Amino acid sequence: MDLSTISLGQYTFIQNAFSFGLAVMAAASLFLWLSRSNVAPAYRMAITISGLVTAIAAYHYLQIMLSWEAAFSVTNNSISETGYPFNQAYRYVDWLLTVPLLLIELILVMRLSRSETVSKGVWLGGAAALMIILGYPGEVAEDAGTRFTFWVLSMIPFIYIVYQLVVGLKGSIAKQPENVRGLINGAATLVVISWLFYPIVFLFPLIGFTGGGAITAVEVGYTIADIVAKAVFGILIFTIALRKSEAEGGAQA
Amino acid sequence: MDLSTISLGQYTFIQNAFSFGLAVMAAASLFLWLSRSNVAPAYRMAITISGLVTAIAAYHYLQIMLSWEAAFSVTNNSISETGYPFNQAYRYVDWLLTVPLLLIELILVMRLSRSETVSKGVWLGGAAALMIILGYPGEVAEDAGTRFTFWVLSMIPFIYIVYQLVVGLKGSIAKQPENVRGLINGAATLVVISWLFYPIVFLFPLIGFTGGGAITAVEVGYTIADIVAKAVFGILIFTIALRKSEAEGGAQA
């Protein structure tokens, strides 16, 4: 990433986007944990984990923001690099934890049988972790060939997860109460759509989309995708849990 | 914003105002969350969100205060600029989150039907977000024409929201229990009056009201308006929730 092409306006805009990400994620955690007792006990673990995902993300947005600030020096309205590298890898550390957990949120809120919960959790969570691990060597590689190779490898678990969400969960979704079937389908679709952003952005440097404008698009885009995939998704999981609790007569709200 | 006109006395006064804002907002969050169980379960989400609004504002007052301190260097009782820009945009990042949420507080405490809650939440919350997004390009613009153009654009959703609060909610307010009708009207009026401050201040640079005195008036004025619109408003929402809980026999206090 060539940070020398970043203008002062772009620097500030990206800094604001990271701060916005931090605030949204932290607020989502507080909301989810404070509202946890509103859902029936059977769904509380899904809400606990939803709040964990956004809390982990809030921590990483703080780290990303501090790393961004450390990479630049601003004086008299001019910006220069300090030489301290902007640590893009915080995103991978975050995803390694949060991506498996947010698939587990979705499985938990469906309240499948214990064996199905465990097997789907292990397979989807494992595939998600593998996807992130395989993406990382490509992200930090200097040459286009390595970047592309690991993109292809990472896409294998990615496609497996998308297939499971679109086709594999169909049977389980059909068995959900009617008042939440649409919402659960919506949550699965939200994951698939928000996730499409990541492999596309990963390819940007390969197609020559670099420089200040590209960096701004990527960092702001990642932040929006993360907010949709974690905070908006978490609120959706909470809504599903609340509706199911009401339908089962266990709602407290 | 020409920071070179700020005197040491003004610098300290504004810094104290930001610290005051942070303390009030954080205290309001703690009060609201600690008192949440005093109201009936149906009103707890309104209180949770009221506390979130002030918590998000507390975080942004911390960021604003740190940015203010980074913009100045004080030695031997003389003040100079460091060249690091004071990040005024944190206010917009804050408003983008908190302004939709505080309209949602008001809707939630009214306990309308689910469809009415969703539709009013989406329309008022969406208009509020649009208002903030349209204000931002004007705030960061260098020339008066752009500032004025975005002021006009931002006033369209602003007027829509004011109209909804003054006229659109009339029917729903009339259906509220008599013991809280005055309070809910008061909360809507509080929003309208405290919000009038923002578009007026936005025009200050256009009418030549700049320099240290103007910056002090704007920053202290924003802080007071934020405290009224978020912390005082939140306490009002809590009072409404408490009265309604008592009337419905669900109060715990």
TrEMBL record, chains A, B:
The chain crosses the membrane at residues 12-35, 42-62, 92-109, 121-138, 150-171, 183-208, 220-242. It is a multi-pass membrane protein. Coiled coil: none annotated. SUPFAM superfamilies: Family A G protein-coupled receptor-like. One of its GO terms (biological process) is phototransduction. The keyword DNA-binding does not apply. Its main location: membrane. It is found in: Membrane. The keyword S-adenosyl-L-methionine does not apply. It comes from the Bacteria. One of its GO terms (cellular component) is membrane. Keywords: Chromophore, Membrane, Photoreceptor protein, Receptor, Retinal protein, Sensory transduction, Transmembrane, Transmembrane helix. GO terms for molecular function: monoatomic ion channel activity; photoreceptor activity. Belongs to the archaeal/bacterial/fungal opsin family. This is Xanthorhodopsin. The lineage of its organism: Bacteria, Pseudomonadati, Pseudomonadota, Gammaproteobacteria, Chromatiales.
